[in-house]
Here is the input.
Amino acid sequence: MKPIYTWFSLAVGVSLVYSIIQVMFSFAAIIPNYSYFNYWQYFTTQSNTICALFILYRWSPFFRLRPMSSATYESLRGALVLFMSQTTFVYWAVLHGIFVIPDKLTFATVAYLHSGAFIYFLIDYAMQPPTTRISMKSTMSWISYPLLYAIYTFTMAQFRSWFPYPFMDPKKAGSVTMVVVNQLVLLSIMLSVAMAVRWLHNRWYQQRLRLALN
Here is the structure.
């Protein structure tokens, strides 16, 4: 892989870490009794942190010393494409404009956290085409984290009546029924995107394999 892409990837990983921290402290500066704990309950914060760690590890000397298997790497990359596609979609389709953003820098970093990693992984696919197939079992395992996130969020809400997103809050969504409907819609979208990612990945891999054999 060209050194320039390695440095680009590292820059993306570092910028994600910076953006996560910058947004946290920007909101802490304007919100009384700001909860740092709550900030880390957002799917956006968690998914971007996972992406940053994955990218920084992938392009560090540690990866070269102890690389992942191709199957593990491809599955993790597919999972992150899924997570960040949802982060991007939900923000721009539902949440954009709801939260008061303190300044232009924070506006830019918030937008970056909701789009940057997703765009990066699309670029990464172009730079590093699939090297192995993704199994159905691996694809279904991608849904585990969003499901656990939802279960954790609703469980915590029983003790402190706080939700990270309005579509998860019965008071803001209108009713418990609407919350259930919202979660089922999100789940169906995630399943559809997961299957699409797997299909596109495996189709691309098969095409490359046929070209290599010809």
In short: The longest helix spans residues 176-213. The mean pLDDT is 93. The chain has one domain: 3-213.
